[in-house]
From TrEMBL:
Originating organism: Alca torda
Pathway: Carbohydrate acid metabolism; D-gluconate degradation
Family designation: Belongs to the gluconokinase GntK/GntV family.
Protein known as: Gluconokinase
Database matches in Gene3D superfamilies: P-loop containing nucleotide triphosphate hydrolases
A Gene Ontology cellular-component term: cytoplasm
Upper classification of the organism: Eukaryota, Metazoa, Chordata, Craniata, Vertebrata
EC number: 2.7.1.12
GO BP: any one term: carbohydrate metabolic process
Gene it is expressed from: Idnk
Entry annotated with the keyword Methyltransferase: no
Molecular function per GO: ATP binding; gluconokinase activity
């Protein structure tokens, strides 16, 4: 696509990385500053008319709202008013698959601070996207080229 790529894991605080590496799941308090920083990156890139891919475990609806609208999403469950910090246009690609498939991929990942033992907490926290969120669900059981093609098709159709 020629778009900039950001891995949200690169923006976790040292405290968050330490906590996860010790097998302690993050909570909302840990994640909100991280999500706000990611929103700021997305907003900056949007202001420059730069399209972006962000790899991020935005597990809860509220987290996805923070990515799109910033800190104001935390204080209000109401839609933004026109002209008031308008939400970014984001397509969320929910990569969905059985726990054993994801666990197998985590086991193969080397040098990452998230241990496979935290996968259960990720599933426990997960709120899959639903209407009216702008999202697609893509099966992780497909091949990588099929996953990429499905996401690309959704981007260019939407």
């Amino acid at each position: 696509l020629g778009w900039k790529f950001y891995d949200a894991d690169d923006y976790h605080s040292p405290e968050n990385k330490k906590k996860m590496s010790e097998g302690i799941p993050l909570n909302d308090e840990d994640r909100i500053p991280w999500l706000c920083e990611l929103h700021d990156i997305l907003r900056r890139e949007d202001s420059s008319r730069q399209d972006v891919v962000l790899a991020c475990s935005a597990l809860k609806k509220m987290y996805r709202r923070v990515l799109a609208s910033g800190a104001s999403a935390i204080e209000s469950n109401q839609p933004e008013q026109p002209g008031e910090n308008a939400a970014l246009k984001i397509l969320f690609a929910h990569l969905d698959g059985p726990r054993h498939v994801i666990a197998g991929r985590l086991e193969k990942r080397k040098g990452h601070f998230l241990p496979p033992e935290l996968l259960k907490s990720q599933f426990d926290t997960l709120e899959p996207p639903s209407a009216p969120e702008n999202f697609i669900t893509v099966s992780l059981e497909k091949s990588l080229p099929e996953i990429v093609l499905e996401i690309e098709n959704a981007i260019f159709q939407g």
